[in-house]
Design a protein that fits this description.
Layout lengths: L2 H12 L2 E2 L3 E5 L2 H9 L15 H17 L7 E6 L5 E7 L8 E8 L8 H15 L4 E7 L3 H9 L3 E5 L3 E7 L3
Parallel strand pairs: 5-6
Antiparallel strand pairs: 1-2, 2-3, 3-4, 4-5, 6-8, 7-8
Helix pairs in contact: 2-3, 4-5
GO molecular function, one term: protein N-terminal-serine acetyltransferase activity
Keywords: Transferase
InterPro entries: Acyl_CoA_acyltransferase, GNAT_dom, Ribosomal_N-acetyltransferase
Length: 177
């Protein structure tokens, strides 16, 4: 195993939320700045098409949270990386810590070439599990009416359709303690 591969494995073991195929890596401020501006650093290992506008927006949201409250983790932004080689293929994150009712909302996105392979549902399922471990009572997500793939992701991750308005479809999952 070369030095970079060993570092990827060690980082995943020490900090990341792991799934079978993915490492959900909590953003550092420097990483979020790179993603927000789509400017890779010398150690960046980005898949083609990453970061898309959604991931850039999520990184900017993370940076605003850092300015307002300091590091928002564990309820901050994460980079979705392949465990096999550490490549960043997308982003996932909370829109803040639990509200007064103990609910959190999630957002996510993948580079186009990695969509349709179950990665998003795998990442969302891990975030559901993590939220449950943190004592969250309700897990929320939403998407536009025409984003059928995202609707399928949320259903595959265990969320249920709750309601809709003119712009969005809302999904939720009660997390039993």
């Amino acid at each position: 195993m070369d030095g970079r591969s060993r570092d990827v494995v060690l980082n995943a073991v020490m900090n990341d939320l792991l799934t079978e195929r993915l490492a959900l890596h909590p953003f550092t401020t420097a990483e979020a700045e790179q993603v927000a501006t789509a400017t890779p650093g010398p150690d960046s290992n980005w898949a083609p098409g990453y970061p898309a506008e959604g991931e850039q927006s999520g990184a900017r949201m993370f940076l605003r949270a850092c300015e307002a409250v300091g590091d928002p983790h564990p309820f901050g932004g994460y980079e979705i990386r392949l465990r096999s080689d550490g490549r960043a293929i997308g982003g996932i994150g909370f829109h803040g810590g639990p509200d007064e009712d103990g609910a959190v909302e999630i957002g996510y996105g993948l580079a186009e070439s990695f969509r349709g392979q179950g990665y998003a549902a795998e990442a969302v399922r891990r975030m559901v599990e993590f939220a449950r471990e943190q004592g969250v009572t309700t897990f929320l997500g939403n998407t536009t009416h025409d984003n059928v793939p995202s609707q399928h992701v949320m259903l595959a991750a265990g969320l249920q359709f709750a309601r809709q308005d003119e712009e969005l479809r809302y999904y939720e999952l009660a997390l039993k303690q």
